[in-house]
Design brief:
There is one protein chain. This protein is an alpha+beta fold. It has a single domain, classed as Alpha-Beta Plaits, CATH 3.30.70. Strand 4 and strand 5 form a beta hairpin. The radius of gyration is 11 Å and the shape is globular. 22% of the residues are buried.
């Protein structure tokens, strides 16, 4: 299944509740989140995945207290 994870880096403040739910999230050098293969542009981090981990991604988005993470399917 192909899906996209988008993080609003202007909203994210490095609480990292997402890391507990989805191990692909990691701390970037700037203290915010990063994702493997992620692209940063205009305050947004976007990564596309084609795997069976969409449930983990949705759990990470739901755990974010600032609602900075969105998971979408094309």
């Amino acid at each position: 299944m192909t899906y996209e994870i988008t993080v609003d880096l202007k909203t994210c403040d490095g609480i990292f509740a997402c890391l507990v739910r989805d191990g692909r999230f990691e701390e970037a050098d700037d203290g915010l989140v990063d994702l493997p293969g992620g692209r940063r542009e205009d305050g947004t981090l976007t990564a596309t995945f084609d795997d069976d981990q969409i449930s983990e991604a949705r759990d990470a988005a739901a755990a974010c207290p600032l609602d900075a993470i969105e998971v979408t399917e094309p």
